[in-house]
Amino acid sequence: MMLHVLLLGAALAQQPAQPPAAPAAATPETLKNLNFEVFKTQVEPILLKKRPGNVACVTCHAGGASSQLRLQPLTPGATEWTDEQSRKNFEAIARFVVSGQPTRSRFLRHPLDRDAGGDPFHGGGKHFHSVNDPEYQVLANWVMNKPAAAGAKAVRIIQTNSAGDNIHVIDPATNKVVGVINNIEVSHGVVGAPDGSRIYISVEPEEVLAVIDPRTLTIMKKVKLSGRPNNLTVSKDGKRVYVGIAQGSGAVDVIDAATLTRVKSIPVDGAIHNVYTTPDGKFIVSGSVGSSVITVIDQKTEEVAWSVKLSAGIRPMEFQKNPDGSTKNIIAQLSNFHGFVVVDFATHKEIARIEHPAIEGHEAHWDGLQGAPAHGLSIPDGKTVWSTSKVYGYAYIYSLDDWKLLGSVEVGQHPEWVTLTPDGKYMYVAACGDNSVTVVDVAARKEVTRIPVGQAPKRNATAVLLTN
User: Fold this and answer.
1) Domain boundary, last residue among 125, 143, 161
2) 25: which residues sit within 8 A by CB, 6+ positions away?
3) What SS3 string covers the chain?
4) What angle do CA 8, 14, 15 make, to 5 degrees?
5) Averaged over 164-181, what is the pLDDT?
6) Integer Cα distance of 345 and 361 in angstroms
7) For a surface tag, which of 268, 311, 393, 413 has the fewest beta carbons within 10 Å of its beta carbon?
8) Which strands make up the sheet holding 374-378, listed edge to edge?
9) Which domain covers residue 99, as residue numbers?
10) Which CATH number covers residue 289?
11) How far is CA 365 from CA 13, 119, 347, 429, in A?
12) What are the tens digits of pLDDT across the range 301-356?
């Protein structure tokens, strides 16, 4: 990648003062050498992206009479182009491309800063300040007909902001925000594809699954769902995305990851709040607040295997494993219960109920808990379960099997969700009341730092994502 950047910079320095005029139509050779699928899934989302302080490319180019490059206007209410419209966009943009040569392609030079080797002026402003910009690299890779994903990956913590219009991406190596996904209001759940190629986000008001390119943090596609979604999960092989529908009689929508279409809705008992994949990947487990029912779905057949009704609405869940990796117990937090219960996965029966004690010297807060005084579970080491309390702003630590209280750690106001680094050494707690993420050293059982994020952060997830 570094060699590519150096060569690209050198070529830009040697480019002619004036770019060649765009031909009346793209040559057959150019159209042959450019990949339409890459254009539709990776290039078009960049054209639709709204940048702070600037307009999206489509705003000017889909209607500006002075623009030589004409994109297709979006159909009223649509957020992406149809295949037919994309084909026309592809041919229009190909007129401004010299295949294999991004430095001679006006499509790339025009929106690039002059100091970085771009054209002197672009009526739509300058979108890229450097040839190293991830979005610019996507465009350059498309022109050179090479995959945009070179294979470099990095661990990221993805934090949704339930009362905001963005999602923050955190690098756990530095505990800094390294990216922001914009223009998604009231996001709920988030999960990364196992191969690192996508981020999936459930969006409540639009009733869609937003598919995000992790390299550019742009929206690749929005998949219409059967109703207002809550949380989601992805199968171990990455072929299916399962979205809990929190409307009506309840369902788990099934999204085919290859076609990005909804292919099935699995009926369940009650509107779904959270949905998970068991650690062994064999089952999809959903929980309903309204019906108080946990539904276990066979992932292979996508049919309900069994269900169990508990004493109150089902909130977050976690899964204790047997030595062979199969699921031993479901640990679940319940509505209006300050603690958690344990359900034996084999017998489908509740076998333990643990209530969190008061934190001495700390005032209890019972206002604004949304019926969930305990909301966030994690098993970081295979030996303990951590359960967060919105009442006290602490995480309680219990030993597995005997459920003895071992200690507690302050994690911030109104903790809503928990995720771990892949090695289980650090826990990231969404402190909704502080608009921040609290980082906890699991072994030391102490706070490391707090990372400011957006409005009312709730669900978060850990993913190993493609970065270029």
Assistant:
1) 143
2) 91, 95
3) CHHHHHHHHHHHHCCCCCCCCCCCCCCHHHHHHCCHHHHHHHHHHHHHCCCCCCCCHHHHHCCCCCCCCCCCCCCCCCCCCCHHHHHHHHHHHHCCCCCCCHHHCHHHHCCECHHHCCCCCCCCCCCECCCCCHHHHHHHHHHCCCCCCCCCEEEEEEEEECCCCEEEEEECCCCEEEEEEECCCCEEEEEECCCCCCEEEEECCCCEEEEEECCCCEEEEEEECCCCEEEEEECCCCCEEEEEECCCCCEEEEEECCCCEEEEEEECCCCEEEEEECCCCCEEEEEECCCCEEEEEECCCCEEEEEEECCCCEEEEEEEECCCCCEEEEEEEECCCCEEEEEECCCCEEEEEEECCCCCCCCCCCCCCCCCCEEEEECCCCCEEEEEECCCCEEEEEECCCCCEEEEEECCCCEEEEEECCCCCEEEEEEHHHCEEEEEECCCCEEEEEEECCCCEEEEEEEEEECC
4) 85
5) 97
6) 38
7) 311
8) 374-378, 384-389, 394-399, 405-410
9) 2-143
10) 2.130.10.10
11) 62, 58, 36, 18
12) 999 999 999 999 999 999 999 999 999 999 999 999 999 999 999 999 999 999 99
Predicted TM-score (pTM) of this structure: 0.80
Amino acid at 125: G
Q: What is the pLDDT of residues 421-446, one digit of tens each?
A: 999 999 999 999 999 999 999 999 99
As a whole number, mean pLDDT of residues 435-460 equals 98
Q: Do 316 and 416 sit in the same domain of this protein?
A: yes
Residue 148 belongs to some domain of the structure: no
Asked if residue 264 and residue 134 are part of one domain, the reply reads no
Angstrom distances, CA of residue 150 to CA of 19, 26, 96, 134, 147: 29, 28, 25, 12, 7
Same-domain status, 75 and 166:
no
